[in-house]
Amino acid sequence: MEKYISVGKILNFHGIKGEAKVGFTQSQADFVLSLKQVFFKDGSEYRPVNVENVRIHKNFAIFKFEGINSINELIPYKGSLLFVEESYIRESLDENEYLIDELVGLSIFDEAGKKLGFVVGVSNNGANDLLSVKTNSKNICLVPFLEAFIKKVDIQNKSIVINNIEGLLE
Q1: Which string of DSSP letters, residue by residue, matches 118-144?
Q2: Domain closes at, from 92, 110, 144
Q3: 104-156: pLDDT as tens digits
Q4: 4-60 tens-digit pLDDT
Q5: Shared-domain flag, residues 82 and 104
Q6: Which end of the chain is more exposed for a tag (fewer CB within 10 A), N or C?
Q7: Are residues 52 and 120 in the same domain?
């Protein structure tokens, strides 16, 4: 069974011709611009919708969907999430790029092999991604997802090795 991942949310309409103003993760603009098809969730079903056009306007994506040609036709979708198939996202990942759900739950180790905690979330500060790590002492610390800190990600063995510089994880 195919898994679906949210890539944006319809926040409002744009103009009167059925265009949707969509919020998305700013670092993913190129990916959003490449979308030719998205899915709307209807109950437990995912319904495909072709994208006629998409462009960036003032930090939002403006989508024109096939078959939606007026504000009235778009209004029922306001607040809806846009999804794509997980397999499509995986194909577009570069080396050393991961899905958030792959990272959450991974154990964090220092370079000597000592377990320091585990990943409880991933966020972005505008400059880079941050791993939220729950340490052995139950503190939540942020680790920048940068080569200077992240030495190895091993999805198979559910582990991340970090350069634990002084004061990073307490």
Answers
A1: EEEEEEE-SSSEEEEEEETTS-EEEEE
A2: 92
A3: 999 999 999 999 999 999 887 777 889 999 998 899 999 999 999 999 999 89
A4: 999 999 999 999 999 999 998 877 888 899 999 999 998 889 999 999 999 999 999
A5: no
A6: N
A7: no
Q: Give the per-residue pLDDT at 1.
A: 67
Token pair, residue 141, equals: 């610390």
Whether 84 and 128 share a structural domain: no
Write the Ramachandran bin of 17: left for phi over 0, alpha for psi from -120 to 50, otherwise beta: alpha
Domain residues for 64?
A: 4-92
Residue 129, beta-bridge partner list: 124
Burial 67-89 (b: 16+ CB within 10 A, else e): ebeebeebeebeebbbbbbeebb
Which H/E stretch holds residue 72?
A: helix 71-74
Q: Are residues 87 and 106 in the same domain?
A: no
Which tokens go with 148?
A: 């200077």
The CATH number linked to 107 is: 2.30.30.240
Neighbours of 20 (CB within 10 A): 24
Q: What is the pTM of this model?
A: 0.70
